[in-house]
Every structure is written in C-alpha cells, then in structure tokens.
Amino acid sequence: MTVEVGDVPEAKRYEARVDGESKVAGVAEYIRTAELVAFVHTEVEAEYEGAGVGSALVRAALDEARAANLRVLATCPFFAGWISRHPEYRDLLYQTRSKVSD
After folding, report:
1. Which PROSITE patterns match (predicted)?
2. pLDDT per residue rounded down to tens, the chain (102 residues)
3. Class of the 3-92 domain?
C-alpha cells in the first residue's frame, strides 16, 4: 500500500490518498502563520485506520514544516503523541518566548 500526502492550502489541510485512489483516506487540518503551523485535527477514514495513513500525514506535514523553517504547535492529540514517539521531530516544537511575571 502506497500513501501519498499533499498539502491543500485552500482547505488548510493535508490530504492522504492510498494507491492512487481519488478518495481521501485521511486529513490533517492546520492553521498557519508566517512562523508557526498549528496542527489542530487529524482524521483517518475507518477502513484505513492502522494502515499507516495517519503516520504518513504527520511525517509529510512535519517534513514540510521543517523545509519551510516553521515551528510546530501540536494541539492535535495524534500529532502530539506521534512526535513524542519520534524524538527526531521534537526540535520543531514551538517554544514560547514570553515571560510571565507575578
């Protein structure tokens, strides 16, 4: 099984398709700014769960964020969990620069 992932900026999401089919197997929705991309929701169609579609979405999206020199805010639990299991992507995580004082 081959999973192809592409960014669809007008829909603000990455879409995954399997074996060249036109049907969308999964999506990863995001909000992007000039310096940050927040991944807010990931969904994989039931028939593709457990087949690596979600992982392919995350890896492709994070690789593109790295290439664009963007920081990542993983508000989506799937993205957060995936990054926690793949430490080679932790350097992408957004670190706040604000200082809060009492």
Report:
1. GNAT_YJDJ (PS51729)
2. 899 999 999 999 999 999 999 999 999 999 999 999 999 999 999 999 999 999 999 999 999 999 999 999 999 999 999 999 999 999 999 986 545 554
3. alpha beta
